[in-house]
Amino acid sequence: MNIKWFINLAVLFVASDNLVQSFNISVYDICPLYKKGASLNIHDVVGRWMTVYTQPRAIDCFKFQVRATTDLEREQYVIKYGEFDGRVDWNLCLLQVETIAGKHFLMGNGSESGLLENIIIMENKNGDYMLQNQSADQWMLFGRRGSEVLMIRDCYGETAAAFARAPYWPSTTELSAIFHRSGIAAQTRGRLLCEPHEGPRRQPHYVASYSHNTNRNY
Prior knowledge:
The protein is an alpha+beta fold. The chain has a single domain, classed as Lipocalin. Helix content is 17%, strand content 25%. Residues 195-218 are annotated as: Disordered. Keywords: Signal. Residues 1-22 form the signal peptide.
C-alpha cells in the first residue's frame, strides 16, 4: 500500500505522481530514501490492520486487509492485465491489499529490508488497463504474533504510518519504542493518535507524550 498515496487520498483525494520502477536497477532507484534493515517475512503481514498513527497528516481511522495471492491467481493476472512492458513481475506479486479505496498488489518478497512496490491497475473508458504511477514503501513489523505493529514508510519523503493488527491497540510507550527502533522520527506536536472505532471510547492518546531518548536502547 502506497502510504503517501493513501493519506493524500483520504485527505485531498489526490494521488502520488512518483514513478513505478522497472527491474534490473538498484534499490535506491526504486526507493531513494531506502534504509537498510531487517528482511520482512511477507506472510507475517497477512491479516487485518487498523490505523494507529499517520504523518504528516492526521486522518480518520481506517482498516485494510492483506491477503496472499495464489499461483493460479497470478497466472490469471498475467493473462488479464499483461506485464506492462516488463514493469510488473506477477511471480513477485505475492500479496493483495484491500482498502476502502479499492484493491491493489504488492510486488516484492520482503528480502530487501521490507521494500515492496505498489502495483495499482486502472481501467480506462476504452476498457484498457493502465499501470498507475506510484512510489514504493518499506514495511517493518514489530511485536509478538497477534499484537504486532506494522510501520510503513514512503520511499520519497517523510510520510509514514503505524498500524496495529486488529483488534490489538498498542500503548503510547510501545509506539515510542517502535518509532525509535524503526528510525522514523515521529512528528509529535501534540497531535492526537487515531482512535479505534470498536469498543468503549478510550481517553485520547497524545503523540506529544512520546519521549525519544537517543541514549536508550529499547
